Every structure is written in C-alpha cells, then in structure tokens.
C-alpha cells in the first residue's frame, strides 16, 4: 500500500473493519482515487487524512480505505440567503494502479459520489492513462463528480505536463468540475484544496 499509512486488511488491501462511529447528523459519501501506479494516490490520501508523508511507500495492492469528516457550509433550504453547516463523512477508497488490479479497482468505483483522477506532473504517460480511468469510473459511477489532480507539483523543474494540457484533458473527458488541480503530498501544498472543494461540491449536490 502506498505511503506506508493507508489502512489495509487481509483481503488484497481491503479493510473489512467497520468504519468508526459517525458524528450525529453526518452524511457518508464514497470517494475513489484512480490513476496509474506510482502517481501518488496513497500519498495524496494520507496527507489529507493524517497529515503524514512517507517517501518509502509501497504500491497499493487491491485497495486501501481511509475516512475523514469535514464540515462544509451550504445554502439553507429554508432560506438560501443563509448557510447551514453540514458534516460529511468521506469514505476514501485508494485503488491500485497496476493493470493486473484494474478489474478489482473498477469494482470499488460502484456507488462512488466523487472520483479523484490522479496523474504525475513529471510523467506524461500517467496523463495519457487518465482517459481509461475516466471511462472506468463513468461505467460504474456515471453520476460521480470527477476531479483531475496532478501530483508532485513541488518538482517544478521536472514538470512535463502543462497546466493548459491538464485543463484541456479535464474539458475533453467532461469532468463534473472543469478545472484541474495540482498538489504536492510532500509539502502539503494544494492537497486540502482538492478534497475540501470536492466536499463542498458534493454537499451542495446533496442539498439541492
């Protein structure tokens, strides 16, 4: 499993233990991470959930499962001019990027409300793989909000995928959110923006 911090279990990386007790009034949403092996999906997840980074990470086998609660403000149903706080419990599924695990990873996409499609800004082939991942998500969770995220943004001098290329890809595969993001799990820059923006979009969808 990547980053040495993702929760894993005895079934190919799947944690079958029950999630911790929900806060009163919290709503649960399933979010999946998808992308080629080595792009940093696990590091991205553990940086957001635990604020940790382990450079000596191992590839995720099957899947890994993490959870985190976030509070977002959405327009009140009774009076849209004011906002209500909503607690979302994010069930975050980190799926394996190796081709031999694609069928397994695809099965975990079912029922997802959000999908984070991840590529490595220093690796153009990882961007080329995004189309296939987007199709897999679309086939299993057609209504999921999809974000495109470029990892390893701290490696500016090695960047091989431009932000314009990323925006073009986001537009081409008709994501639910047409912009793209860049983040660094190493420094933490941009990581919270990805997940908090997704949580906001999902909360507003649920409230509408």
From TrEMBL:
Alphabetical UniProt keywords: GTP-binding, Nucleotide-binding
Q: Where are the transmembrane segments?
A: none
GO molecular function terms listed in the Swiss-Prot or TrEMBL record = GTP binding; GTPase activity
The protein's name is: Uncharacterized protein
Stored CDD domains: Rab
**GTP-binding keyword on record:** yes
Q: Return the InterPro entries for the record.
A: P-loop_NTPase (IPR027417), Rab (IPR050227), Small_GTP-bd (IPR005225), Small_GTPase (IPR001806)
**Gene3D superfamilies attached to this UniProt entry:** P-loop containing nucleotide triphosphate hydrolases (3.40.50.300)
Protein's UniProt keywords contain Isomerase = no
PANTHER family attached here? RAS-RELATED PROTEIN RAB
């Amino acid at each position: 499993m990547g980053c040495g911090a993702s929760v894993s279990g005895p079934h190919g990386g799947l944690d079958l233990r029950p999630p911790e007790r929900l806060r009163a009034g919290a709503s649960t949403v399933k979010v999946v991470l998808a992308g080629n092996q080595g792009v940093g999906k696990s590091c991205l997840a553990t940086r957001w959930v635990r604020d940790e980074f382990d450079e000596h990470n191992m590839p995720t086998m099957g899947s890994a499962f993490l959870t985190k609660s976030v509070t977002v403000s959405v327009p009140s149903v009774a009076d849209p001019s004011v906002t209500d706080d909503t607690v979302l419990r994010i069930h975050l599924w980190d799926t394996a990027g190796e081709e031999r695990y694609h069928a397994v990873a695809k099965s975990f996409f079912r029922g997802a409300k959000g999908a984070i499609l991840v590529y490595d800004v220093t690796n153009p082939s990882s961007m080329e793989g995004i189309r296939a991942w987007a199709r897999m998500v679309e086939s299993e969770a057609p209504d999921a909000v999809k974000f495109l995220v470029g990892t390893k943004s701290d490696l500016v001098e090695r960047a091989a995928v431009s932000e314009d290329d990323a925006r073009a890809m986001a537009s081409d595969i008709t994501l639910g959110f047409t912009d793209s993001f860049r983040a660094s799990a190493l420094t933490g820059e941009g990581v919270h923006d990805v997940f908090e923006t997704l949580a906001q979009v999902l909360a507003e969808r649920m409230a509408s």
